[in-house]
């Protein structure tokens, strides 16, 4: 049995059984899932671009990035991933890992 733990905003949703029928996620038909994919891809591309900008600062490619304190790069990256995860939940799909989702 697979379980997923993720947060949403300041309140964590907790651990969810991916196969629970009463988990609040909708079941998609193939056509519905295919229609939603462009939005998921666009959101994922935006998140990847944001993380790329953060990493470019880490590599010293940006001289005036907003991250100046130690650990703030990790916080910024975590924030991007959290926002992406929350957006996937709003789409009705399971955020499974870094830029991976499951449809029910």
Number of domains: 1
Structural class: alpha+beta
Our estimate of the beta-strand percent is: 15-25%
Sheet with most strands: strand arrangement: 1-2
The number of helices is 2
Q: Low-confidence stretches at least 5 residues in length (pLDDT < 50)?
A: 1-13
Main sheet, how many strands, which sense, barrel? 2 strands, antiparallel
Give the overall shape: elongated
Textual characterization of the structure:
The chain has 104 residues and is α+β, with helices and mostly antiparallel strands. It has one domain. It has 2 helices and 4 strands, in the order ββααββ. The protein has helices spanning 30-58, 72-91; strands at 3-8, 11-17, 94-97, 100-102. A hairpin with a 2-residue loop joins strand 3 and strand 4 (100-102). Helix 1 (30-58) runs antiparallel to helix 2 (72-91). The longest helix is centred in the middle third of the chain and has 29 residues, at 30-58. The two termini are 15 Å apart.
Q: What would the keywords be for this entry?
A:
104 residues; alpha+beta; two-stranded antiparallel ribbon; 2 helices; disordered N terminus
What is shown here, in short?
The protein is of the alpha+beta class.
Which SSEs are present, and which pair or pack?
Layout: E1 3-8, E2 11-17, H1 30-58, H2 72-91, E3 94-97, E4 100-102
Antiparallel strand pairs: 1-2, 3-4
């Amino acid at each position: 049995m697979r379980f997923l733990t993720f947060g949403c905003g300041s309140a964590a949703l907790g651990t969810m059984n991916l196969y629970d029928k009463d988990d609040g996620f909708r079941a998609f038909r193939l056509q519905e899932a295919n229609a939603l994919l462009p939005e998921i891809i666009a959101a994922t591309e935006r998140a990847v671009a944001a993380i790329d900008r953060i990493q470019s600062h880490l590599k010293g490619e940006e001289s005036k990035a907003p991250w100046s304190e130690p650990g703030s790069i990790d916080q910024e990256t975590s924030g991007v991933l959290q926002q992406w995860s929350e957006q996937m939940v709003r789409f009705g799909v399971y955020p499974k890992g870094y830029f991976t989702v499951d449809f029910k």
